Amino acid sequence: MRCLATVAMSLGLAVLNVSATTPRGELPEWTLAVNEGATYSSVESPRQSFRAIADGIGRVTASRIRLEAVTDYAVLEQALRERRIDIALVHPAHLSATAVAQSGYAVVAVSAAHAAYRPYFMCRATINGDSVGDIVRAHQAPGAKPIGLPAQSSITSVMARANIGEVIDAGPVLRTPTYKYTRHQDAMVSMIEYGFVDCSVTGARPIADAWAAAGGKVVAGPRTAPVKVILVNPRKVSADAQAALRSYVVTLSHTMEGRAQLDRIGLPQGFVTLDNAALIDATRWLQPGVQNSSTRQ
């Protein structure tokens, strides 16, 4: 069996031959929407950082790519529901899973570094126990502080609430703790240090590791979900173009030029393939975390 790099090269050459004989005005125009999450600040606009990759996608799929940055989750969700996006990089798993399950999108690949994304509960060392259940129980006492979470609609918050919801469902004597939200992941430690909360949640492993190294307690959420997933609308993008797109993105890390492009978008490990079923399965346990977002301070 030929390696993916060989397959990508043969597909790319075949498409380039088509492109060479097809006037640019006759090439299909597809929208590539990029969403990098709700809680991370980026130095460079996706319209700049993803431009080289978008151009590469256009070459291997014989298309014109219109690159759009979509930061608002509600706008992204509606556009996916109405199938107005042809190719998308979607950070939050609950939106990509819904797009697959309800709107017919197909999974192309997922960020290798985010295929098993999980929330990390960071707590003061005085919080007893080493499970999410212990953290919930520590927040049941009268006057207990809320649990700190990043942006309310972020996948980190959705996963944290879903993890907590499973504990609540398993123990009927427990109640849902209150939550205190702030925008960015890098503010999670400050929420504890300034006394707003005794526990906060991050999806960034380096932040959690730094907190543990400083003597804090870290409890990893028991479930994971794939985030930063590339989706395609099969009603617009042919099976051959999908195969070319998949081969292109999963082999970007195989060349110096591709690695430079991946570094620019902050995903140096590149992309790996992902099955539709893995994403749809995640939505079953994430849904309570989407719905349970109203208890806050």
Explained architecture:
The protein is an alpha/beta fold. The protein has two domains: 175 residues, D-Maltodextrin-Binding Protein, domain 2 (3-Layer(aba) Sandwich), CATH 3.40.190.10; 104 residues, Periplasmic binding protein-like II (D-Maltodextrin-Binding Protein, domain 2, 3-Layer(aba) Sandwich), CATH 3.40.190.10. Helices cover 43% and strands 15% of the residues. Strands 2-1-3-10-4-11 form a six-stranded mixed sheet, sandwiched between helices. Strands 7-6-8-5-9 form a five-stranded mixed sheet, with helices on both faces. Helix 7 links the parallel strand 6 and strand 7. Helix 1 crosses helix 10, helix 3 packs across helix 10 and helix 4 packs parallel to helix 5. The N terminus is likely disordered.
| Average pLDDT over all residues | 87
Oligomer: single chain
**Percent helix:** 40-55%
Task: Kindly estimate the percentage of residues that lie in beta strands according to DSSP.
Answer: 15-25%
Shape: elongated
Question: CATH homologous superfamily of the largest domain - what is it?
Answer: Periplasmic binding protein-like II
Low-confidence stretches: 1-22
CATH architecture descriptor name of the largest domain: 3-Layer(aba) Sandwich
Query: How can the largest sheet be summarized?
Result: 6 strands, mixed
